[in-house]
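Please decode residue identities from the backbone states below.
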């Protein structure tokens, strides 16, 4: 191979990761039953999944998927504009608009694709995109690809966001958008929704929200983090939600005004030039939304588990982040300690991966709770964490 080929450079960078002990690796899950997974032949209680309501294996979702597959087959066979947009996609979009109170919705294959589409369509060169420093990678990349000027503000900091919104790019009247995660995926905290929305109004900026981790879990009827904070839907110019987390399915949607959705259908290249998701997945997502709308018990159970976990790790004296969401963070001194604790937990039967720099500023265990967990499982994990804490002292 040509010694200057791109691959040679990649191999060097991979080796550098390895030397820094930052190599990422895929763990193959051999079996999964609710929160129990089998990895390397060992049965573990998983505290790593985003299946916050335990819906991914719910019989209603499985049946909806099977029935729709019988009717529609597997593939959607085409892009949305060329016959791939099937009745289940359309029905899901109607359901989403109705559930969340937006004029219109559009289905995407993934949250990553939805964010690329939303930001790439709204923003152009010379526009300004202001984002929380800790926003999801897809939002940051989407802004960069759009050609807009990306300015990041200090996490949750309205003053810092205000300053960034006042950035002048040239003398023209450019478009501005402020984008935030609803629930931050590596910290579990919530964006200050009202303050951000007001700031956008004052500065004539669009307010865009990524609620991948809030949908289904927070707010009345599981509508999300914005509903939890009692922000009205009309204050959000574009809402992105994913189906692969609490809804236990796969795919994503953008919600907003009719004008936004019409514009996306004209200009969102990642949506136009891709095969529509399998219609059976849309039917499974529909089944998940019905469950979320009709049964508040799993949400209430999950809330209890989160409060119980927070209380116990405080008692143990661990350094945690304040979180009322199923994303619970235990801060550790460095990457080595995070890896050691994660390995030690695994030896004791728990799957709780370490998250290290550069993904986050400070090494941590990211523990995600689910309505499928029992109180006993939470207590077992806390007992294991306490043993680790005592052994470290
Ligand atoms: C998971 C996630 C995404 C990506 O969604 P996928 O459907 O998994 O591609 C986008 N934004 C946030 C905040 C996420 O957590």
């Amino acid at each position: 191979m040509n010694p200057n080929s791109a691959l040679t450079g990649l191999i060097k960078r991979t080796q550098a990761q390895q030397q820094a002990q930052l190599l990422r690796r895929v763990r193959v899950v051999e079996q999964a039953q609710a929160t129990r997974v089998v990895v390397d032949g060992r049965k573990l209680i998983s505290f790593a999944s985003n299946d916050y309501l335990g819906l991914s294996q719910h019989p209603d979702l499985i049946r909806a998927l099977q029935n729709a597959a019988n009717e529609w087959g597997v593939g959607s066979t085409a892009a949305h504009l060329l016959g791939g947009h099937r009745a289940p996609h359309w029905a899901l979009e109607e359901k989403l608009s109705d559930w969340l109170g937006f004029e219109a919705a559009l289905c995407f294959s993934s949250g990553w694709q939805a964010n690329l589409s939303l930001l790439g369509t709204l923003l152009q060169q010379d526009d300004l995109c202001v984002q929380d420093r800790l926003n999801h990678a897809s939002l940051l990349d989407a802004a960069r690809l759009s050609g807009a000027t990306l300015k990041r503000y200090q996490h949750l900091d309205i003053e810092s966001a205000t300053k960034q919104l006042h950035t002048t790019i040239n003398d023209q009247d450019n478009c501005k958008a402020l984008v935030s995660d609803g629930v931050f995926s590596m910290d579990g905290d919530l964006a200050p929704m009202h303050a951000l929305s007001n700031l956008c109004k004052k500065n004539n900026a669009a307010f865009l929200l990524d609620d991948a981790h809030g949908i289904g879990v927070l707010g009345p009827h599981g509508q999300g983090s914005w509903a939890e904070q009692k922000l009205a839907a009309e204050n959000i110019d574009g809402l992105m939600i994913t189906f692969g987390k609490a809804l236990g399915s796969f795919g994503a949607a953008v919600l907003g005004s009719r004008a936004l959705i019409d514009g996306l259908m004209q200009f969102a290249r990642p949506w136009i030039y891709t095969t529509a998701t399998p219609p059976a997945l849309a039917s499974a997502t529909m089944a998940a939304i019905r469950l979320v709308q009709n049964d508040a018990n799993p949400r209430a159970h999950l809330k209890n588990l989160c409060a119980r976990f927070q209380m116990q790790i405080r008692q143990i004296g661990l350094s945690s982040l304040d979180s009322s969401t199923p994303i619970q963070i235990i801060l550790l001194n460095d990457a080595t300690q995070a890896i050691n604790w994660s390995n030690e937990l695994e030896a004791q039967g728990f799957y709780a991966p370490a998250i290290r720099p550069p993904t986050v500023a400070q090494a941590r265990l990211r523990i995600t709770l689910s309505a499928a967990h029992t109180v006993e499982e939470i207590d077992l994990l806390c007992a294991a964490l306490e043993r680790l804490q005592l052994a470290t002292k």
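Observation: The chain has a mean pLDDT of 95.
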